[in-house]
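BUG: 3D viewer hangs when loading the predicted structure for this chain

Environment: internal workstation, default settings.
Expected: structure renders.
Actual: progress bar stalls at 90%.

Input used:
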Amino acid sequence: MGEQKVSSLVTGGGASAGPPLGPALGPLGVNIMEVIASINEKTKDFEGMKVPVTVVVDTDTKKYEIEIGIPSAAALIMKEAGIQKGSSTSGTEWAGDVTMDSIVKVANTKLEKSYASSLKSVAKTIIGTCVALGVSRRKNSKRNNC
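Structure tokens produced before the viewer hung:
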């Protein structure tokens, strides 16, 4: 039969054998709890964030590989800012703030999977996401627009 792929968005460190993964993996004959435990181990650094995950199963040998994607820029920024959601009126009300170091950290995380040619261009995209979320840049304890 060959290879089957199961892709899903899971909560980092909190995947379960329930839908969507369990029912999709069941017919492929792999040990579901073993796969879930492995996914949770690999995504624990992204705790609480939605993480794209692909499980590639060899249906003949029942061996599997787990590919972990990177959460969205918005999810990474909200984690850095310590907030659960962005501002509903960005530009008027700020939901939180981040340091320039945090912006660079998020940009570095996204750079590998980005088509951008430089860290600077990814950082500009991240700053744009900050503005859309209503997250400002912290500088000398004053709030400045990203």
